[in-house]
């Protein structure tokens, strides 16, 4: 097999880092915005609920793999919409997954087919667990992912970087991202972080190995600004009110794109690109796109809403000449909102995008007396 990466990169050492298998495809910038994204059920629709489904994944080629609807368009808009290093360069994009390295080739081929401009991918070397006879650790990813994320920051010597974390609710991404964000943003002391790892049975040896890597980056001022968790179909939505203060759960990437626009992360041209892509390539109806627009317009009256309405009116009328009944004022269209799982009515909070450190500190303060966090299911 011909290599399509430029080198392997890893800073950490010790037993837990034997699980971290990273390949670098493009040397990333050492500052600015960096996106760290999960793969299974976040970018790819992967079924592994049964042993037979898990085994069949190993035999899939790139053509068998299906992207989560609109994920590539959202990542494209997020990665290229702005960069703090130079306007012509994309943000750093890194995939960290618990899939084994044996799947790297079809996964990389799928990314290439989707025209994803990714800098690195990190997969979990499950053979290390098997050689050690630790079969129970095959589905335990918290130590591995904490190590992989911190090691990525150390390996690329990132400084002052804005980290965006994207995952799903199928496994433990919420809990993992919480720990990383709390540590980097200063809401957790080292002692708090060790207690957080202990709560889910990360061994003292692995804790020390992970913290040794943290020593390389603790003064580099990297911070987590946003955590996005996709509500994967068939999995329980995490409704803990404390968690919902610092992470954004979303139903699909179009919905998330509207929220990004009204939070000031996306500009109008980014939202237009995503809407157009969902309309043409994901076959979202104009009514479904309008239902999102109506919801966010109602909660965010003002100039940004007016510009959005004008953009959508021009976009969808021009794209579909037969829809003469499109309402230019974007009044509420009768559509079954439950069918598209629009559940932000009670939890939408613009400040959560910009006050993550404050929210995490408040969370820790309120929970200090009951710091034994519930293990994720």
Write a structural description.
The chain is an alpha/beta fold and 377 residues long. 38% of the residues lie in helices and 11% in strands. It has 13 helices and eight strands.
Assign an overall shape.
globular
The end-to-end span amounts to 38 Å
Average pLDDT value? 78
**Coarse structural class:** alpha/beta
Tell me the helix content: 25-40%
Number of domains: 2
Question: Would you report the number of β strands?
Answer: 8
Instruction: Report the β-strand fraction as a percent range.
Output: 5-15%
Q: Mind summarizing the main beta sheet?
A: 8 strands, mixed
Unreliable sequence segments: 1-7, 49-55, 321-354, 369-377
**Highest-level CATH class of the largest domain:** Alpha Beta
Helix count from the secondary structure assignment: 13
CATH fold name of the largest domain: Rossmann fold
Task: List the defining traits of the structure above.
single chain; about 375 residues; alpha/beta; Rossmann fold; 2 domains; eight-stranded mixed β-sheet; 13 helices; about 40% helix; disordered C terminus
Brief sketch in words of this structure:
The protein is an alpha/beta fold. It has helices at 51-57, 71-80, 104-113, 126-131, 142-155, 173-184, 190-198, 204-214, 253-262, 268-280, 286-299, 303-319, 356-367, and strands spanning 7-8, 20-24, 33-37, 92-96, 120-124, 162-168, 223-230, 248-250.
What's the SSE blueprint?
Blueprint: E1 7-8, E2 20-24, E3 33-37, H1 51-57, H2 71-80, E4 92-96, H3 104-113, E5 120-124, H4 126-131, H5 142-155, E6 162-168, H6 173-184, H7 190-198, H8 204-214, E7 223-230, E8 248-250, H9 253-262, H10 268-280, H11 286-299, H12 303-319, H13 356-367
Parallel strand pairs: 3-4, 3-6, 4-5, 6-7, 7-8
Antiparallel strand pairs: 1-2, 2-5
């Amino acid at each position: 097999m011909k290599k399509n990466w430029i080198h392997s990169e890893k800073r950490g050492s010790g037993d837990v880092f034997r699980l971290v298998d990273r390949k670098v495809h493009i040397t990333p910038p050492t500052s600015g915005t960096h996106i760290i994204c999960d793969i299974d059920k976040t970018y790819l629709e992967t079924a592994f609920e049964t042993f037979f489904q898990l085994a069949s994944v190993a035999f899939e080629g790139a053509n068998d793999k299906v992207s989560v609807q609109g994920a590539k368009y959202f990542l494209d808009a997020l990665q290229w919409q702005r960069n703090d290093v130079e306007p012509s360069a994309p943000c750093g994009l890194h995939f960290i997954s618990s899939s084994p390295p044996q799947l790297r080739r079809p996964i990389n081929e799928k990314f290439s087919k989707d025209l994803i401009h990714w800098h690195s991918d990190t997969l979990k070397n499950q053979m290390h667990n098997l050689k050690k006879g630790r079969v129970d650790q095959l589905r335990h990813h918290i130590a591995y992912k904490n190590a992989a994320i911190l090691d990525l920051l150390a390996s690329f010597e990132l400084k002052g970087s804005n980290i965006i974390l994207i995952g799903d609710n199928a496994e433990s991404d919420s809990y993992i991202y919480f720990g990383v964000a709390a540590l980097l943003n200063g809401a957790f002391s080292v002692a708090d972080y060790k207690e957080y790892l202990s709560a889910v049975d990360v061994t003292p040896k692995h804790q020390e190995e992970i913290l040794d890597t943290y020593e390389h980056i603790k003064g580099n001022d990297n911070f987590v600004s946003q955590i996005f968790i996709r509500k994967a179909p068939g999995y329980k939505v995490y409704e803990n009110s404390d968690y919902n203060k610092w992470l954004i759960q979303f139903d699909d990437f179009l919905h998330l794109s509207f929220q990004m626009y009204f939070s000031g992360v996306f500009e109008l041209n980014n939202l237009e690109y995503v809407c157009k892509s969902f309309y043409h390539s994901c076959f979202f109806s104009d009514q479904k796109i309008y239902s999102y627009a109506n919801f966010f317009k109602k909660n965010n009256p003002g100039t940004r809403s007016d510009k959005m309405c004008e953009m959508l009116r021009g976009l969808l009328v021009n794209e579909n000449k037969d829809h003469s009944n499109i309402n230019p004022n974007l009044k509420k269209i009768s559509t079954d909102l439950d069918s598209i799982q629009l559940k932000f009515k009670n939890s939408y909070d613009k400040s959560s995008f910009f006050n993550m450190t404050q929210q995490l500190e408040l969370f820790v303060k309120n929970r200090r007396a009951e710091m034994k966090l519930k293990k994720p299911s």
